[in-house]
Amino acid sequence: MDFVKYNNPGNIMQHAGTPFLGEVKSPHRRLTAFKSKEYGIRAMVKIIRTYQAKGYTTYQQIIYRYAPPAENNTKSYLQFVCSRCGCMPSNEVRPSDDQALIAAICYYESHYVLTNEMWKKVQQIL
Questions:
Q1: Using one digit for the tens of pLDDT, what is the confidence trace for 12-29?
Q2: Global confidence as pTM
Q3: Spatial separation of the C-alpha atoms in residues 60 and 82, rounded to whole Å
Q4: If DSSP codes are grouped into helix, strand and coil, which group holds residue 101?
């Protein structure tokens, strides 16, 4: 389970852009590595907020961008997230939904359970 080793519960892929805060050199050919889980989860929040700033505002739009169908069973992924969040795919993701959305993505990607304590730690480094 590489996501555990790399503190990356969202399975964020390596990218060519500016490194995330807390990102470290990854020995994995595809996955980004972080110095702690807090930074891996922080990166997920930053990614989701970037999507929102670019007009991806519904659960469906965000999940289809985060986990594209070319690489994932995105329909199943979206159903899982909406079930966990108690929402419809067409619902807008509000700031108050961030924790539930990130928790659902973490669990779907890696079976990582995002606790309130961990969420508070992430909020301190955003």
A1: 999 888 999 999 999 988
A2: 0.96
A3: 9
A4: helix
Give which of 35, 31, 51 is closest to 101, Cα–Cα.
51
What residue type is 34 in one-letter code? F
Which amino acid is residue 118, in one-letter code?
M
Per-residue pLDDT for 3 more than 90?
no
Residue reference for tokens 């805060």: 21
Which residue in the block uniquely carries the two structure tokens 């169908």? 69
Both tokens assigned to 45:
């929040």
Angle at which helices 98-110 and 37-53 pack, to 10 degrees?
Answer: 120
Residues 6+ apart with CB under 8 A from 38: 22, 118, 121, 122, 125
Per-residue pLDDT tens digits for 83-107? 999 999 999 999 999 999 999 999 9
d(CA 114, CA 100): 9
Backbone torsions φ then ψ of 24, nearest 5 degrees = -125, 165
Q: Quote the crossing angle between the two packed helices 37-53 and 116-125, to the nearest 10°.
A: 70
| E runs forming strands in 12-121 | 23-24, 33-34
Contact by Cβ (8 Å): 110, 26: no
